[in-house]
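User: hey, got a sec? need GTPase-activating protein gyp7 folded
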Amino acid sequence: MVEIRQTDPASPALGSHIQDEEDRYRLLYSKSKVYVQPTAYARDNIPGFVALVKREAANPTYLLAWIPETLLNEKGTTEWDKFVKIEERAAGPDEEDDVVLIDMPFQRPESYAFSVPLTSIYSLIVHQPSLSSWYGSIAINLINGDTLPTLHFHDDESNSFTLQSPKPTVTAYPPPPTEGPSHISKPVNSWGGEDLLSRLRQYAHVLRSTLQPSLFLIDPSRADIETHSTQIFDDDAVDDILAQSSYANSHSPIPAHRRPRPLSTNSSNPYSQRSSVLHRSLGTPPASPGQASSQARMALLQSFSNITRATRHAAQNILSHPLAKPIVPHLPDPVRSLVNANGEWGSWVEKGGVGEFESARVYLARWARIVAEEGERARRREAQALPSSSSKLAEESSSLGVFELLHSTSNLPPPKATRDPAHPVDDRMWESWFGGDGRPKIPVEEMKKEVFRRGVSPKASTRQKIWPFILGVHEWDTTSDEREAAWKEKQEEYQNFKSEWCGVPEVFDRQDVLEERHRIDVDCRRTDRTQPLFSAPAEIATTDLDDEKNLHKRYSTISPSIHDIGSQSPSNEHIDRMAGVLLTYNFFEKDLGYVQGMSDLCAPIYVVMAGNEEMTFWCFVQYMHKMKKNFLRDQSGMKQQLLTLQQLIEVMDPELFKHLEKTDGMNLFFCFRWVLIAFKREFPFDDVLRLWEVLWTDYYSKGFVLFVALAVLESHRDMILRYLVEFDEILKYCNELSMTIELDSTLAQAEVLFLSFAQIVADIDRRKAEEGERENELRRRGALQAVDNSDKTISRIQLSEDLRGLLKT
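Assistant: Yep! Here you go:
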C-alpha cells in the first residue's frame, strides 16, 4: 500500500479534505492516462492519475482523487514509478505488504487536481465508449451541488488497459481447473471507467439508476433508492411477453412478419453491448436476462395503462386551454375529441402519482408553453386578417394578452405600447437631428424617446455614433468641435490610467495585480467566443498596440503565467485587448475593482466599437455607473433589486405572488442572472444589443430591467401557476427559457406593465387623498363610521420608496 504524507502543512492540499501529518494514506487503486479536458481543443488536455486512497484512522475515510502528471513530475521519476507500480499490481486492496511512501504534491492554480471523500460524492454520470465517442468519461457530482472536472479514460494509452487485455494465444481445451474452492477469477473490464466503478463498489454502495442508465448513485438515501430502482422495461418487452403467450402460436390473420418476434437468448448484433471498436475484443458481453415472470408482465401492462390514462388527461388539459383554441380545427379527429372532455390535471396527478416526478411537470409546462405560443401566433395572424373597424375586435387583437386584465379592478383605461422596432433610427434620421455646427436640434429627452421606441439600426457604424450619446460619453447639447476637444481629453485620461500598469513591472507583477489579471484573463477567454473578433486569432489594424508591444512585449499578455495558457481557451489580440480595458478599469475604479460578470457587459461594447480601446473603456465606465450596484461585494444591490421586483409582483400580480410564496420562491433566484447582467445570456447577441439600447435610455425608469423581468414572468405565469409547484421546478423552467424569449413582444409588454404600474400608483395616491379628505369631513361631522370599506382596501396598499423609485428617470 501507499502512504501519502503532507510535507508542508501550510501548502494547499489537492482537495478540501484537511490532512493531519500523523495520518496514514494508503493508495488502494491507481490508473494512468485519465485526462481532464478544460477546452474543446485536444492540445489543452491534461493527463493524470485517478486514485483511490484510504485514510487510516479510528474511522477510516476513503478518498477519490485525480492528480495531473505535471504534479508528479515535480517530485521526480521515483514518485511516478510508485503510482505506475500500484497500477500494474494485480493484488487486492487489502494486501499489507509492499508499502510505498510518497509526498503529497502541491497544488497549482488551474491544475484541476482534486481529492474528495467518497461520502461527499452524490452521483457519477458515466458515458461508455461508443462509435461517436472513442473514450469513455465519468462526471462527478458532489452532495453540495458542485461538479468536479469530467474524467476521460484514454484506455489505449493506459498501462492497466494493456495488461488486462486478453492475449491472442490459443488456449487449451478443456480449461485448467481452478486453484481451490475459494478461487475467484478476476473479471475483465471493458474500459477504465468500468474498472474504477468495480473498485468503488468495494468501499461504497454504488446504485445504477433505472431512470437514467448513465447515472450511478454513491451511498444513496432510502428515497433515492426507491426513486431510482423503479422497474423499467425494454422497448421490446411487449413483443417478448406476447411471444411467450399462446398468441404467438395461434392462428391469426396477421401476416407472420408483423407478428411479435420470438424471444432470443443470444444477440447476433456485435454492437449490442460494446459499440466501440477499441473495446470490442475485451471479453464476451454479459448474457441477456431470462424470460420475464408473470408478475413482470402484469406490472408492464399496468404501467402502460397508467401512462395511457395520464397522457389522455394531459392532452385534455392542454387542448382545452383558450390559447390552444386556434390550432384545434387543424388536429386529427381522435385528438380533437379530447377537447373539453371530462378530467382535470390535478385529479390524475393525485390518483396516478405522477406528481412525484418534478421533471415530468417541467417538461409538460414547456410543452404547454409551446402550444400556447403557437396558439398566440395563430391568433395574431387571424386578428391581422380581420377588418379593424370594430373597436371590440381591435381590443381583442391586442398582443398584450394577460396584461389587459391588470386594470379589471380599477376601471383604468388599458395603456398601449408605443414601440415601433420595424423603423429603427438610422444614419439619415440621426444626422437630421443635428445642425451645421453639430449641435443637436432636438432635446435629449426626444432623442431617448425615439431610441426607446425604434431602437438603433443594426449597422455597426450607426451604433458607434449613437451609443456614446445614449451612455453619456459625449455631452448632448454641444457642438462637434466641443465634443472633439472633450474626447481628446478622455483619450489622454485613459492612457494615463493604463500607464499605471502597462510597462511598469513592479505594478504589473504585484501579487494583487496578478490575481486580478488571472480573473480577468479566465473570464475574457470564455466570453462571447462565437463572435468573429474573439473566435479566432486576428491582427488588429491599428498600430498603437503594436508599437506598445514592441516596447513592452512582456506585458502585452494579461495572463499571469505562461503555464496557465495551456489549460485555458486560446486567446487572440482582441481578447487580450479587452482584458487590458478591464484591467485599466480595475485601476480606474479602485474601490470596486474587477468582479466576475463584468466581461459579459464589456464584450458587446467592444464588438460594436470594433476594438477601439478608448471608446470601449469610456462606454463601459458609463454603463458601470448604472450597473455598479449589481457587483457590490455584499450583494446588497442585487438583494435590493430582487426585493423591489418581489414587491412589484405583489402589486401587479397578487395571484402569482401567492403562488411564489407557496413554492418558497420569494427569493427570486431564477431572476438573479436576468438582473445581474441585464439578460445578457437570455437573448441572442444581436437581441442583447437591441435590449441594452432600450435600457440605457432610462426613458421611463432607471429600473426598467425589472419590468422586463416581470414581463417574462407574466408571459409564462399560466405555466408557472398551473404546472410548477416546487421552487426547483420554477428555477429549472426559467433557466431553460434562455434563447427562447421573443424580444420585441417582451419589451412591448414591459412598457405596458410600467404604464399600468404608473396608473395604479397614481390611482392609489388619488384614492388615499380623497379618503383622507372624507375622513376629515366625517370627523368634523362625527360620522366616521360611514367611510366606504372598498376605499379602505385601497388605503391598505403600502408602496415602498423602492417601488416609487421605479417611476423616476
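Quick note: The CA atoms of residues 549 and 632 lie 34 Å apart. Let me know if you need anything else on GTPase-activating protein gyp7.
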